[in-house]
């Protein structure tokens, strides 16, 4: 995920989070990544090469 607003405001966080970074955050919590549409529907056939937002 690329967060332009945070970066424009001078923050060092919120920039270029990869699917692997997200996975490392959520898997220890017992959760799994799920790519969603803009209406929060599920996106079929998600794999690691897909950008998760």
User: How many domain units?
Assistant: 1
Distance between the termini: 6 Å
Please give the number of β-strands.
Answer: 0
In DSSP terms, counting alpha (H) and pi (I) runs of 4 or more, how many helices?
Answer: 2
Shape: extended
**Estimated share of beta-strand residues:** under 5%
Order of helices and strands: HH
Region (Disordered): 1-21
What would the keywords be for this entry?
53 residues, mainly alpha, 2 helices, 0% strand, extended
Q: What is the gist of this entry?
A:
With 53 residues, the protein is an all-alpha fold. The protein is built from two helices and no strands.
What does this structure look like?
By secondary structure, the protein is mainly α. The protein has one domain (1-53). It has helices spanning 4-8, 19-26. It is extended and about 35 Å long. The protein starts with a helix and ends in a 27-residue tail after the last helix. The relative contact order is 0.19. Residues 1-21 are annotated as: Disordered.
Topology:
Layout: H1 4-8, H2 19-26
Region (Disordered): 1-21
């Amino acid at each position: 995920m690329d967060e332009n607003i945070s970066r424009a405001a001078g923050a060092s966080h919120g920039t270029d989070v990869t699917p692997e970074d997200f996975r490392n955050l959520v898997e220890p919590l017992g959760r799994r990544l799920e790519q969603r549409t803009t209406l929060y529907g599920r996106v079929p056939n998600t794999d690691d090469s897909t950008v998760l937002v």
